[in-house]
Amino acid sequence: MRTRHSSKTRSTGVPTADPGCSVYSMSRRIPTVRHGAGFWIVAVTFLLVMAYSTVPTPLYPLYQQRDGFPAFVITMIFAAYAVGVIVSLYLAGHVSDWLGRRRVLVVAVLISALSAVLFLLFPEVPGLIVARLINGASIGMLTATATAHLGELRQAARPNENTVVAASVSGAANLGGLSLGPLVGGIFAEFLPDPLVLPHLVFLLVLIVAAVALMLVPETVDVPDERRPYHPQKLSVPPGAKRPFVIAAFGAFSGFAVFGLFTSLAPTFLATTFEAGDHLLAGATSFAVFAAAAAGQILLTPIAVHRQLTVAIVACASGLLLIALGAVLPQIVLFIGGGVVAGLGVGLLFKGAISTAASLADPKRKGETLALMFLVAYAGLAIPVLIVGAALAFEPATGVLLVFVALVLAATVTAGTLMRRRARASIRP
Fold first, then answer.
1. 10, exposed or middle or buried, with CB in 10 Å at 0-12, 13-18, 19+?
2. Is 261 in contact with 385 (CB distance < 8 Å)?
3. For 82-102, what is each residue's pLDDT tens digit?
4. How many CB atoms within 10 Å of residue 410?
């Protein structure tokens, strides 16, 4: 397809954007930075938007205390976020391929800023649900686009560098942001005034600045002269590889259930089971779980995949058992420590699931296969915690948690064992 560029080319070597786009029309008058600097602007923006998506985690008990709603409402608010991510991934996760990376990133960041406005203007339950839904939509647009843009910017800046650098920075921004958000939210809730207002106001300003900074970043996609007809993201199971894909997807689903627990109901369990209502502690707990997942993915990269999955199985099993033991005794140190160990295992399990999907996929349909894997994972983020939240209305928190742990332990260990068996078989001569 023929592409159209403006009459001038910037010093970066990237064609100027389509003048028909309002965002591009503004950015055309702003000199772009070099690809290397643009890489770090996108990375920091990725980190900040992901962080804001988890800032509300330690704030949920404050909303609950103010309005007196049950724990199930917290899971509904959180599930709205996951639904937003899933729908956005399906409808808009791929549009940057022909609309341009920069344009979609700017829109995604502004949508996240819109969710902050809704948190400020409509802080009652219906407003919280809509705000989280919109925030999830921004994440669905952002993740795939930012990951692709980072890889392309780094390739342009350092063409001879191993692609693992861009992938590592992308992964660190993604999981690092998710881990940083609860910690920041906990600091606001524990030490600063107006914790249901100030965090959203601060991030609103930060996100607007980030959107402006993105306009300085070079575009890495040629925008077609004629718009492609829109279609939702295609999803596909690799032909002839349904069983290993389903096993990997099962692992991603069950692993993300652990993340869902610690980003929605962990503060509730800390307050009810352990009588620990410290908001900073709630934020730090979620931070530690995600940080362990990110650290495991990065630090164990040199190890063979089947050995990584061995660590994942052991970490998931021992971590979930510690969570259960901590709830029964009750011992908060065991509960939090178990979450950290389980987080390490889930990070490796999810990395193995993505690697499995990528290795099974038809090269021409890899994006479709990976999109389906991400959708299954985010379903795991929402569905189990909704069930847990509903059960809390009828059963004691400890009993509900023990049933959850038992089911997730069985699922993660089974999926991890089957994935490990396939990984070992693939390296045999």
1. middle
2. yes
3. 999 999 989 988 888 888 899
4. 13
- How many Cα atoms within 13 Å fall on the side-chain side of residue 177? 20
Contact 173, 149 (CB under 8 A): no
For 328, the token pair is 């029964």
Token pair 């100027």 is found at 16
The two structure tokens encoding residue 268: 């509730």
Per-residue pLDDT tens digits for 367-412: 788 888 889 999 999 999 999 999 998 899 899 999 999 999 999 9
| Amino acid at residue number 274 | F
Among residues 200, 145, 112, which one has the least CA distance to residue 371?
A: 145
Q: Which residues contact 210 (CB under 8 A, 6 or more apart)?
A: 44, 45, 48, 49, 109
Bridge partners (DSSP) listed for residue 15: 9
Total Cβ atoms within 10 A of residue 342: 32
CA proximity to 357, closest of 259, 257, 258, 241: 241
Domains and CATH numbers, the chain: 26-224 (1.20.1250.20), 234-429 (1.20.1250.20)
What pTM, to 2 d.p., does this model score?
Answer: 0.84
| Residue type (1 letter), 416 | G
219's CB contacts (< 8 A; 6+ apart) are 14, 15, 17, 100, 101, 102, 103
> What are the Cα distances from residue 161, in Å, to 164, 219, 220?
8, 20, 18
Amino acid, single-letter form, for residue 271: A
